[in-house]
Amino acid sequence: VTLEIALRREFDYLIPPELAGQVEVGTRVKVSFGRRQVLGCVTALAESSTHNALKPILKVIGAQSLVTPRVLELARWMADYYCCAPETALKSVLPDAVRKEKEGWRERLFVRVRPSVEGIENLTKRQMEIYHVIEENRSIALQELLRLTGTTAQTVRKLEDKNLVEIAPQISERDPYANEQ
C-alpha cells in the first residue's frame, strides 16, 4: 500500500476476511499508520510478507478501483522520471474529488421561481432578464446564474426580497464515474 503521506515507500497490510473480495490493485483504502488512520492505494497483492504482525486494512474507500494498472504504471514512471515520491505522483493522477474518503457531494445554493407572479410588473429591465433565465431553467445553481447573466448575488437577492424567487441550499452530487461506461 502506498500511503498519502510522503514516505517514499510501500507498506504491507493484511487483507481481513471481510474485505477479501473487495481489495485489488488500485483500490483506495484506509489503514492504521502509527497512532493515526491514513488513506492509501493498494499497489500490489502478495500471498505472503517478510514482515510479522501485519496491521489489517481498515476500510475500502469507494465502490470501485480508481487506479487502473495503466494509471499505476504512469504514476510509477512519473515518480522515476521526475524524481518525486511515488505517493506524490499517485496523488497527481487522481482528481481531488475522488481522493477524499467521503462521497463526492456538496451543498450549493439554487434559485427557483416562486409560483406567485405578483409584482413582476415592477421589475427593472435587468431584473426581468434575470427572472426569465431562472424561469426557463426552473431551478439553477446560483453560481451558474451569476455566470450566465453577469449579475451579482445582490440583484438575485432583490428578486428574493420581492418574493419572486427562492434561494435555497441543495445537495449537488458529483459522480467521478459519470463519463465511464
Automatic annotation (TrEMBL):
Keyword ATP-binding appears in the UniProt entry: yes
InterPro entries: PriA_3primeBD (IPR041222), PriA_3primeBD_sf (IPR042115)
Pfam families for the chain: PriA_3primeBD (PF17764)
A GO molecular-function annotation: ATP binding
Lineage: unclassified sequences, metagenomes, ecological metagenomes
Keywords: ATP-binding, DNA-binding, Nucleotide-binding
Name recorded for this polypeptide: Primosomal protein N' 3' DNA-binding domain-containing protein
Record-annotated Primosomal protein N' 3' DNA-binding domain positions: 1-95
Organism: marine metagenome
GO terms of biological process kind: DNA recombination; DNA replication initiation; double-strand break repair
Keyword field contains Acyltransferase: no
